[in-house]
Design brief:
The complex is a heterodimer of chains A (about 120) and B (about 110). Chain A is mostly beta strands and about 120 residues long. Chain A is built from no helices and 11 strands. In chain A, strands 2, 4, 5, 6, 9, 10 and 11 form a 7-stranded mixed sheet that branches. A 4-stranded antiparallel sheet of chain A has the order 1-3-8-7, with no helix packed on it. In chain A, a hairpin with a 5-residue loop joins β4 and β5. Chain A starts with a strand and ends with a strand. The radius of gyration of chain B is 13 Å and the shape is globular. Chain B has about 110 residues and is mainly beta. Classes of the chains: A mainly beta (about 120), B mainly beta (about 110). At the A-B interface, β5 and β10 of A face β3, β7 and β8 of B.
């Protein structure tokens, strides 16, 4: 079964750091670009960051550029998001999502991991 | 930055047709993808590349894209179609993925 499972969310103080992980299974992880998408409570979807299959291409939303770092370990079938200098507005459910092979649609999503930023 | 605008809500009676629009500057030149998100669940891809349906998505779901508007059409609406729907594109000018503002579909 094709599956993405996020972990690493939790409560962090403003200015703090957190590292999210996404474990992939059921498909050839190294062949796909991956993304992080977040959803603040009661709000819509917001794309956060994207990484190509070999990590050659990396993109960030303006709202997180310079604070968040996306990475992957194809040997471990894992995607990561290092989040530094966290703000209240970063509080959200963070999803990892696979991009389909033609590079446009997010065809597989995890269930998300919740990041709470509060003092 | 590129913006996709959706109506906040659409109401439809069971058995009728719901049309959800996604407006953006010359969106017809981009590939639009649509997601359904039910409460407490992750989004699910329902239409990709404007008109294609992933396996397992009912034929009642269809899409179109032209000019400045893309449209997701849900025919013969059922109670189970009640959800939030989001459009999404890749904006090559900014190297950003962009989601629409989202539409809540209510089945009366």
């Amino acid at each position: 079964e094709v599956q993405l499972v996020e972990s690493g969310g939790g409560l962090v103080k403003p200015g703090g750091s957190l590292r999210l992980s996404c474990a992939a299974s059921g498909f050839t992880f190294s062949g796909y670009s991956m993304n992080w998408v977040r959803q603040a409570p009661g709000k819509g979807l917001e794309w956060v960051s994207s990484i190509s299959s070999s990590s050659s291409y990396i993109y960030y939303a303006d709202s997180v550029k310079g604070r968040f770092t996306i990475s992957r370990d194809n040997a471990k079938n894992s995607l990561y998001l290092q989040m530094n200098s966290l703000r209240a507005e970063d509080m959200a459910l963070y999803y990892c999502a696979r991009v389909d092979l033609t590079g446009g649609a997010f065809d597989i999503w995890g269930q998300g991991t919740l990041v709470t930023v509060s003092s | 930055s590129y913006v996709l605008t959706q109506p906040p809500s659409v109401s439809v009676a069971p058995g009728k047709t719901a049309r959800i629009t996604c407006g953006g500057d010359n969106v017809g030149s981009k590939s639009v993808h649509w997601y359904q998100q039910k409460p407490g669940q992750a989004p699910v891809l329902v239409i990709y590349y404007d008109t294609d349906r992933p396996s397992g998505i009912p034929e009642r779901f269809s899409g179109s894209n032209s000019g400045n508007t893309a449209t997701l059409t849900v025919s013969r609406v059922e109670a189970g179609d009640e959800a939030d729907y989001y459009c999404q594109v890749w904006d090559s000018s900014s190297d950003h993925y962009v989601f629409g503002t989202g539409t809540k579909v209510t089945v009366l």
